[in-house]
Amino acid sequence: MKSFEFEGRSLDFGCGDGLFSFIRAGGRFRAEFDAFQKTEQLDRFYENADVYDAYDESFDPLVTMPASYQISVGFDHKANLLRKAAALGFYKETVQGDGNGPLPFGDDSFKSIFSNIVYWLDNLISVLTELRRILEPGGAI
Length: 141
Hints:
141 residues; five-stranded parallel sheet; 23% strand; 18% helix; Rossmann fold; 7 strands; 3 helices; alpha/beta; two-stranded antiparallel ribbon; globular; single chain
């Protein structure tokens, strides 16, 4: 990922809480920041409950250095993770949706698309076809 350049209108497809991409972009946090400070259902962890899909208004990512660039759109299927991502100030906007289906973006919408989730989705060929549809000619995925 280090060599990937975000150019033009960009998409982080499956951004989650945004921490991975934020750090990759040079963003930094105070030492006392705990990325897992907002969790729920810890008693159900071994039942495969998503303990990280939690948010409340006191969430503060304690940013000490902003990222060296912004990504236009952070896209994920979990509203709580998108709320955490928005708190970073790294994404110009966040969009909720299911990466397994048609994406809520027009043809040729992005010059750069990054994703570290495509291997988790139901149908790789379908997902890649949809990502190609929303990528500008000459863009990079």
